[in-house]
Amino acid sequence: MAQIPNLDNSPLNLKSLREQSQKDLVKILKDIRGKKCLVIEPKLGGSLSLIIQTSLLKEYGIELRHLSAEPVQTDCTKVVYLVPSQRDLMKSISSHVHDDISKGLQREYYIYFVPRREIQCERILEEEKVHHLITIGEYPLYIVPVDEDILSFELDLAYKQCQVDGDTGSLWHIAKAIHKLESTFGVIPNVRAKGKASVLVSDILDRMHTEEPMNSSDMALSEINTLILIDREVDMVTPMCSQLTYEGLLDEFLRINNGSVELDSSIMGVQQEGKKMKVPLNSSDKLFKEIRDLNFEVVVQVLRQKATSMKQDYTEMTTTNQTVSELKDFVKKLNSLPEMTRHINLAQHLSTFTSKPSFLAKLDMEHTIIEASSYDICFDYIEEMIHKQEPLVNVLRLLILFSVTNSGLPKKHFDYLRRELLHSYGFEHMATLNNLEKAGLLKKQESKSNWLTVKRALQLVVEDTDTANPNDIAYVFSGYAPLSIRLVQHAVRSGWRAMEEILKLLPGPHTETKRLGFASSPSFATLQGASNGLDKIADGRRCLVLVVFVGGVTFAEIAALRFLSAQEGMAYDLIIGTTKMVNGHSLVETFFETIG
């Protein structure tokens, strides 16, 4: 099964976006004649694996290498570096060039910055006295389609850079990515933004429109009706909770990276001692598409039913005479056997984690924190975790959840837990705690928490959630409805004006704008319900809403959005844009910094 996702069923023509990125890269490589060695920064290599097959690159006579501190081993006289605009990487490249010169090797060097060149990087190349030896260009990869309804801007550190470093460069990148979408699919008439960073992205986007106005035909043919921008800062409760959908749990325990997980081959029933294998996870796998967004409890039942039905078919095959068409149907079913085996193996492996008492106790504690009814029980639980020296990231994840729902901790408790953390895990983690405090995720309480008001008003806790036949998005966390998706739900159903007071209780400003030149287009105010006939584009497709998460989104939130989109009476298809796919662990880890 290909790692490159199949985009045929996408509500937008994402295939054309991907093909354009392929063409851009191939053009860069074709323009450099002769044999060449392409040196790719490893993380960027992961993103490219969703865009282009490596076999295709090799057809152009290209040797592939990953960038590291070690000199590039190749016989090629042309070395092409494909790297993000990161200053630390310039040192590595400079040392490669110096190393070649010291060995008397004569090579041509090219650096293609992704998505654009930056002066600071070039300055380092000048300081290292190699700039004049290098041809510099850009590979404008702003968007990577991760699946048929997910676009990633591949900005791993966006949230931390904005919140801690005060670096808003990633916001320009997000606006540029959306602007590129608009140049292909038309200007988006309605924009809603919640949170400081999101409002900034909306402003930058408006500025881009003024500087590079689109022609009137682009404005008439908008395929995306509305853009909703949401800051991760607005809802840091959701990513700190353990996701309970199948795909969410796979990410929690095995880390999904560029649409696949890497694990021991023995888990997948392949007996090769110590060998790792990559298992692709995208909607090209029909069974995965069917079960990815279900609560994990239900997935186990579905797989059991499918296996039982296959077993019955097999028994019938061997004990009765079958017609040719019955044989054909059975063989068709057999084709899905590899997918069945794959997911039974994965689900069995996940069960070894989800059945542990420690995991169940943690889920209980998360729900207790969200209920916000037993402060002391939660405090004691976290204190005990620290004393048991449980992994620091696990402790911080629960502590952030506790701090965010309480609007910080009383000074006495804050100082005490901070001291205990440094004693238990070492003073080198002081910088990490400072980063979390600067981002407002772990802080002293300065005002009364409004979490209870928000929780009630948005019905974030849903009692007796039926995970098998859900009627609410709360099924993705077995009883907690992700706050971020409740905001989207309200934006789509009745607009945000009706919930103005609640929005004010959440971090950051909010804006709703209608782009100039769209006075006649159906706005959200008139786009309610499926009955008024305005919910279809001329060719019968549903209106499209692009929901962009500035700072990352979890698989559980995406499952909740897909659930919303599939509801009866829902007039929209939803497509998701994100700086990166995240979970609580990966998000907390971006704040990690050790002193010394």
From TrEMBL:
Pfam families, alphabetized: Sec1 (PF00995)
Entry-linked InterPro entries: Sec-1-like_dom1, Sec1-like, Sec1-like_dom2, Sec1-like_sf, VPS33_dom3b
SUPFAM superfamilies named among the record's database cross-references: Sec1/munc18-like (SM) proteins
Top-level taxon: Eukaryota
Family named by the database record: Belongs to the STXBP/unc-18/SEC1 family.
Protein name as it appears in the record: Vacuolar protein-sorting-associated protein 33 homolog
Organism, scientific name: Gossypium arboreum
